[in-house]
Amino acid sequence: MPADVIADTEQLLRTARSVYAGDRDATALVDDLEVRLHEPLRLAIAGMVKAGKSTLLNALLGERIAATDTAECTRVVTWYRHSPTPRLTMHLRDGTVARMPVRRERGLLAFDLGGRAAEDIEWIDVGWPLEGLTSLILIDTPGIASLSTETSARTARFLTPDDAPSAADAVVYLMRHLHGSDVRFLEAFRDTAAGAGASVCALAVLSRSDEVGSGRIDSLLSARRVARRYERDGALGALALGVVPVAGLLAEGARTLRESEFIALRELAGLERRERESLLVSADRFVRESAATGLSVAVREELLGRFGIFGVRLATAIIRGGVTTSSELSDALIQQSGLIELQEVVQRHFRPRADVLKARSVVLQLQALVRRTPKPGCEAVLAGIERFTASAHTLRELALLAEARAHGLPLPAPQAREAELILGAAGVTASARLGLPDDASPDEISRRVLEQIDHWRGLGADPGADRVRRDVISAVLRSLAEMASESGAVRALRPASHVDPSGRPGDALGQDAAEQGEQHEGRLPRKKRLQWLSLGAQRHPLR
């Protein structure tokens, strides 16, 4: 994707503003899209009811500000964005806005809806002074497959509307087990959101993964095996960039661990083995009256609610292993919870591609506007959309990575792994794509890029390679070409007799990005071709 994707999209918005001058609704939409282009990436947290969405969001934030109970506010789409000072705002269905008081109850942020029902509220905007929100807008959504049809419909309207692009740029989808409704949601999100570039912008999380092993100490190992099996599932694998097992309650408790909780856990760890194991045999036994510990039932109930029986067992085991401070315990629990792996995957796939993903969302909205309200001069807007689509190689990389996880690439194993790296499986830096150390010098990177281009050109010239393999090789060469352009990798001209004839996959390096995109447009195989949808108006005020 061109490095100046934001500037190119700004120019496209200026063109649209000129075409729709005098149309108040259209120009308001363009203004909103310009704001969206320059705000952080919108990452939605979605999943079925009781999947642990709000708990995971609190763990990601490192503060307990997302509602995790069954109150009305859990049935409303809630945005969390950076703000210098805390502020809570309700956007009502009638178009009005109401401020909410900022207060806490038992350590949790309290949402006072002023007696309003969830049906009266379109969305809630939470501004909070957290560093993690400077580069991401996190969006908590009501559970899908809810007994309340309206509750499920809110999430569907927001993330997978029938007649509009998704309001999110990417999604982290939580599931406790793989159900047909999970696959259907991810299919709908891909069809709605992918459009330009036929991309995959979803990451799956096997949530509450400590329950996979019934709360045993080795539960997360069992959950990891289940997650790997789901990744290889053909239905799910091609719809998500991976499946990460996370014990959300443990992660939230670890990120917000209090000193008093550490002291209580340390006391449990110090009990005689027989007494400790008897107390921790089950959640019910843990909160019964017992002479084995001086901790009151209320304190043990609080520990159970904060960490779960798995978290309590794990924390006491870690303390017995030599941890002596609350900060050390917090770090150890976070490491065990799976939260760090989730953050790394988001960092690897979504954050570096944020500009392209935001631009894609804007382009889809403009396409919806043109199809909904055509005007004289719209051809210029459509031309800009076509240029974006032709150069959206970054989005094709994501789609190929998902396909590689689900079905593998049509290459021998060593070449397939090399191709995945080049496509960005381990990160989008040149050193990560080329399998070089992070501190590799520019000369090393340039030399390696040119070697890889020659290697993959040779593979593409194999007359025995079928079309599917050639398409993958072409995509790899496109990624290498962009690396060569960014690193300034050049070589002396070779004799004409050694120059590859035009039209072969190896020509990626010398072609203009847009021309190459047109040449290879439509080649990548898909089980189901994604088509640009005829899109209607976006209901959300921020679009």
Summarize the structure.
This protein has helices spanning 5-19, 24-38, 53-61, 149-159, 180-193, 219-231, 234-237, 248-255, 259-269, 273-279, 283-286, 297-320, 326-337, 339-349, 354-372, 378-390, 393-407, 413-422, 430-434, 442-460, 467-487, 513-520; strands at 41-47, 78-82, 87-92, 97-100, 103-105, 108-110, 121-128, 136-140, 170-175, 202-206, 243-245.
Q: What do you see in this structure?
A:
It is built from 22 helices and 11 strands. The protein has helices at 5-19, 24-38, 53-61, 149-159, 180-193, 219-231, 234-237, 248-255, 259-269, 273-279, 283-286, 297-320, 326-337, 339-349, 354-372, 378-390, 393-407, 413-422, 430-434, 442-460, 467-487, 513-520, and strands spanning 41-47, 78-82, 87-92, 97-100, 103-105, 108-110, 121-128, 136-140, 170-175, 202-206, 243-245. The strands form 2 sheets. A 9-stranded mixed sheet has the order 4-3-7-2-8-1-9-10-11, with helices on both faces. A two-stranded antiparallel sheet has the order 5-6. β9, α5 and β10 form a beta-alpha-beta unit. The model is unreliable at 193-197 and 492-543 (pLDDT under 50).
Keywords summarizing the entry:
nine-stranded mixed β-sheet, two-stranded antiparallel sheet, 22 helices, 49% helix, 10% strand
Itemize the secondary structure elements and their pairings.
Blueprint (H helix, E strand, L loop, with lengths): L4 H15 L4 H15 L2 E7 L5 H9 L16 E5 L4 E6 L4 E4 L2 E3 L2 E3 L10 E8 L7 E5 L8 H11 L10 E6 L4 H14 L8 E5 L12 H13 L2 H4 L5 E3 L2 H8 L3 H11 L3 H7 L3 H4 L10 H24 L5 H12 L1 H11 L4 H19 L5 H13 L2 H15 L5 H10 L7 H5 L7 H19 L6 H21 L25 H8 L23
Parallel strand pairs: 1-8, 1-9, 2-7, 9-10, 10-11
Antiparallel strand pairs: 2-8, 3-4, 3-7, 5-6
Helix pairs in contact: 1-2, 1-15, 1-16, 2-15, 3-8, 8-12, 8-13, 9-12, 15-16, 16-22, 17-21, 20-21
